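Re-run with default settings, no changes from the original entry. Doing this only to confirm the output is reproducible before filing.
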Amino acid sequence: MRIRHIIFFVFFSLINKTNGQYNFEIGLNFGGTGYLGEIGGTGIEGKGFLGDLIIKETNLTAGINGKYKVTPKLYISAGINYIKITGDDINSVSPENDNPRGWRNLRFANNIYELNARAEYSFYKINDLGGRGTYNTSLDLYVFLGISGFYHNPLGSLNPDAPLKEWEKLKPLQTEGVSYSNLGISTPYGAGFIITSGTFYKFGMYFNYMKNYTDYLDDISTFYADPSTLSNQAAALANQYNGPENQASSFGTGQIRGNPSNFDDIFMVNFSFSKVISSKNNIYYADYLMKYKIPKKLRRKSNYSGRQRNSTYQFNKFKKKKASRTMKATF
């Protein structure tokens, strides 16, 4: 019996020295997404960034991810996201119908599938959230920067009330006489917080801004193409002007249809949930073994002194009568 106790003692000591935390976790995220491009805003002049955001055009996003802890402050993550963005000039129309944004009368929807990789850095941490001395819940504030690739395929319609399944794919139509790719790259960056509960579960929230390098998420970028060079369907979708007749010439061939100097960007506000993956290579797995797997003859006793945890494992040599000898190992 004494030899067995010594083996357990050495085993748990090695675990503690090898790794004090789980290194890998998997999770999911979901939230709202917005688009910053040629469609949006209610003024004649674009305000830039969130100034042209229209709340009713907010959509949903969701994804899964995996994360690996390189150091206590640095993580590497990879994930797959579904992102939906939409825009409609009809939402920019004022009651007086005096806004050229509304006269243009274009609309789009785009379902985007993104694959990303990013580095996360935790710059501030509270180990005992709430200050109860249990160290069971912690808070991390972090920033991240990464790279991503995505697939997109914008859709358009003459009727804003038509079901999305009836909308037309715009890329093959080349509504501006330009061929662009369904694939794109992006630089996602942002910041957020994570609350860790009971070592295994993490809940958080973060802001993610996708700096994209394409101006065709909405199929609008440059100038109105000559309708004679387009198919009938493409010409109808490319120019849906519905403003005053005396302004129609400003929406004809060669006139400005979009703004090629700015790319189409996406931002997201997401909630996240993840679970740390079990590993035998840490002290928490040792706790698990002590509680559930090894004989009841080995009891775990935890003491807390102020804000510092002091865990003691007590190994008793049991006989038919009262134990006569005790060995203690403190980690």
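The first strand starts at residue 24 and ends at 36. Confidence is low (pLDDT under 50) at residues 3-20, 299-324, 326-331.
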